[in-house]
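cache lookup: miss for this entity combination. No prior model stored, computing from scratch. Input as submitted by user K.M.:
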Amino acid sequence: MSGILNSSIGRKFAMALSALFLMFFLLQHFAINILSVFSPDAFNEASHFMGTFWAVQFILQPILIIGIVFHFTMGIILELKNRRARQVKYAKNNGNANSTWMSRNMIWTGLLIEAFLIVHMSQLWWHEITVKYISPMKEDPTRYYHELVEHFESPVIVGIYIVAFVFLALHLLHGFNSAFQSIGANNKYTKALKGVSKVYSIGIPVGFIFIALYHHFAH
Amino acid sequence: MNLTLKIWRQKNANDKGKMVDYKISDVSPDMSFLEMLDVLNEQLINSGDEPVAFDHDCREGICGMCSLYINGEAHGPDRGVTTCQLHMRMFKDGDTIYIEPFRAKAFPVIKDLVVDRSAFDRIQHAGGFISVNTSGNTIDANAIPVNKQDADTAFEAATCIGCGACVASCKNSSAMLFVGAKVSQFALLPQGQVEATDRVMNMVKQMDEEGFGNCTNTGACEVECPKGISLENIARMNSEYLKASFKG
Ligand code: HEM
Ligand code: SF4
Ligand code: FES
């Protein structure tokens, strides 16, 4: 087991685990956000729970942050290593003949998601940390819905949101199946998973975009 | 057919190298790509120029020696063939064809289109074999029953000819399709089990030391492989490797 991150396959495996974790997190995040469309109360309740339950705050949240930082740091390291593995470029290379645009541009779709995450965290997550830990306010369990609606009033924010989720969809259209291949699963079950992969990779980002547009236009 | 060829010329390993244009006429569509290069070389020799160096041996698609990156694809635009089996009928009169060596840090250019693929040999030496005592009382291979599915899958993996098209096509110059095939052909058979742990650990270690990149599952290798080696072999190598690492 020692030094697994020093081997090419070990790094792939770690990359895939962090990615699977992020995809699980994204699903959970979506499940809560979509509540806001159907019932402000249910959304407030779920957000209040996530925002105050100790296991979420002090165990899951740090794991998530480590997961994101690990994923993009490792993504950048792998990309740099891979570039060094071919020092003279081809004068003519026909990548479209054998692979998808998504698979060849994971670093760019990833970096764009990263840029969005920085904006997103500084706006919403930092606000959460401030009101909870830095200058604590009395917790109002109904504040979440209003904050969400307010957030999506700005057309600029909604615009950034849409662009980011389109890139996330592109990232996942390759990434979802890739993660299973990386952990060594390529069999009849993972072939069946290809359908699920499309539903997830397009459905989740489209769902997030829908939520943003809904709140932008509904109030 | 009349063609314009843009060919990588490089005197030796230390030369910088550059693309050079050549015109060639009266190419028959029935020629193989290598025959077309033979004709070009005859022209070059007759006019006192240095012929283009390129690799080849069997010229029937089984040795894996011919290489070439043709119009942006390993072994050119056709599927399931090596360059010696690529025919000029895949091109049109008046075409411009780019001809470059397989490029990877681990496959240094020796001269023109010839690259050194001995990195593959060293990976094989690290574990691509089984140790069998052949001193007189060899056991018949058929004495150990193997189920048909495993035998077929192992055989498919074993058809890899070590050409390196997978590395050349991969945006990361990863050798994982080749190594995956070489690991799989034994991993699926009882004869391969004795050395299974060491094999995958040592072959992957050697692969990394040679300077090949990391697979990101683009699948370019599988499409360009003349033998249709499947990505499943990489997944199998990954799981063999993980199993072996946890064993210690
Ligand atoms: C919520 C955010 C994200 C999710 C759900 C996600 C998901 C994924 C998935 C599923 C993979 C495939 C893993 C594999 O092939 O084993 C992947 C790969 C990759 N990700 Fe992300 N990702 C996210 C954010 C990012 C960010 C911020 C970057 C920033 C650089 C990034 C860069 C990469 C790169 C370069 C790869 C390719 C590496 C490889 O396949 O070996 N990702 N991602
Ligand atoms: S896996 Fe295919 S492309 Fe790679 S070396 Fe073997 S035969 Fe050639
Ligand atoms: S020369 Fe042997 S495969 Fe092409």
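stored under new cache key. The longest helix of chain A spans residues 8-38.
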